[in-house]
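Narrative summary of target 7.
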Amino acid sequence: MAKQLIECVPNFSEGRDMSIIKQITDEIESVEGVKLLDVDPGKATNRTVVTFVGEPEPVVEAAYLAIKKAGEIIDMSKHQGEHPRMGATDVCPMIPVANITMEETAKYAHKLAEKAGRDLDIPIYMYENAATSPKRRNLAVVRAGEYEGLKEKLSKPEWKPDYGPARFNAQSGATAIGARDFLIAYNVNLNTTSVRRANSVAFDIREKGRIKREGNPITGSIVKDKNGNPERVPGACKSVKAIGWFIEEYGVAQISMNITNTKDTPLHIAFEECNKSATSRGMRVTGSELVGLVPLQVMLDAGKYFLEKQQRSVGVSESELIKIAIKSMGLDELGAFNPQKKIIEYQLRADDHRPLVKMNLNDFADETASESPAPGGGSIAAYAGAMGAALGTMVANLSSHKRGWDDKWQIFSEWAAKGQAIKDRLLFLVDEDTASFNAVMTAMKLPKTTSDEKNARKKAIQEATLYASQVPFQVMQTSFEIFELCEVMAKEGNPNSVTDAGVGALCARTAVHGAYLNVAINIGGLDDKKQVDEMMKQAKNLRKEADKLEQKIMKIVESKL
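Modeled conformation, tokenized:
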């Protein structure tokens, strides 16, 4: 069964003394099954955002230990900082990452809150999807009055904590624990030191906008509805909360945002709207910064957006898209932006091993030529396919940027993007083929003394053999997609690169034939003959059609030589 994964992003009210933060993160890392992903301190805010991930129970334990340690070593009575806060552990949200629902995540948030409130003498409020009432759903409402107003707040019956005592803890304050979707904490830098002007931009872009006024938008009388409540002018960005502040550490004002739903407002759109508002008010956006981690897709979407603005092909590598996003939004203005540390999927991949595709060409060839049986023909077939897809993609990109073909850039960009996707799938299968072979070898080595051991070994061998057959079959299916790309490029692409499209087709045929041989030899070990016959029938059809398409494409290529 696939692992359930929860991300936890506690915010601690200390961003200047890293020895204090180290004590807290040591507690997190002491829990087996939890991976610390990011520690992001801010001197001006005097606040550190910590990100870790793991299965639910270890995450709850790590969060509890972190809240406990923070309550012991952070004294809120002495805390000062730019960011709103009410406790040593100010907020502790849990985010569903994989194979777990929001409802399940909220239950674990309550489990953490109950334990922390009971054992640590800290008032706990639940928010977002873990909220116990609608009025407590919004974090800003829960945190209103901040630490300084907490003592009076706790005296009011309507603000009785969800867990823990309804009395003021001077050292630890109070903590908000919640379950929410992935939130991006994002700051946009302005060429001004004025908080008022930064706020004017924040009001333009945040979802709730600004209070509506008669005449002068600053000094005019407030417009009220029939119930006497102030009317509002909505902002440009849905699911965005924003304020303006001055960061002494950098000497600039920023718009500080929480983007709570990137489907409503992607990161790049939030940046663009800030830029538009700032420009209209005589200011300029100089860059931006991400606090904590960001999903990979957010960065890829941004890279594609800015390439499309330039009318350039989006069919470039993942690393190139990320580079474009970083430079376009100035994410490296205030400090280096390391994708390996800032993108959540890259952090989670850190423990994954893809040894073959990480090798240089010499090492890969040497490893293949060694006496080890893997990597073998299956991995080489996948790599041949990846090279075929890469060549087709190259022709698409050259065609997209060809002088005089400006009206065709988008069509070729779409083909290049398809080619990149095919290439990436095949590169994954290079290592997966070797991993599937190793899984068969591991199953073969299982003990077979008792009847139960023999049955378990046989089952493991069958499962591993099936997967070792399915992987090269996937290589066949994926490589087959290359022919369409190469045919279009041979017919309509940059004529100077027609031979590259032809070589791409030859690589695709090699990949299909090579992977077929691996399907045939691996599938022979399966007991389910019906399954064997069906897969072999499909594999033979793919091989036959691949030959036809390769010959068709070569005729097109040769006609243009």
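The first strand starts at residue 5 and ends at 8.
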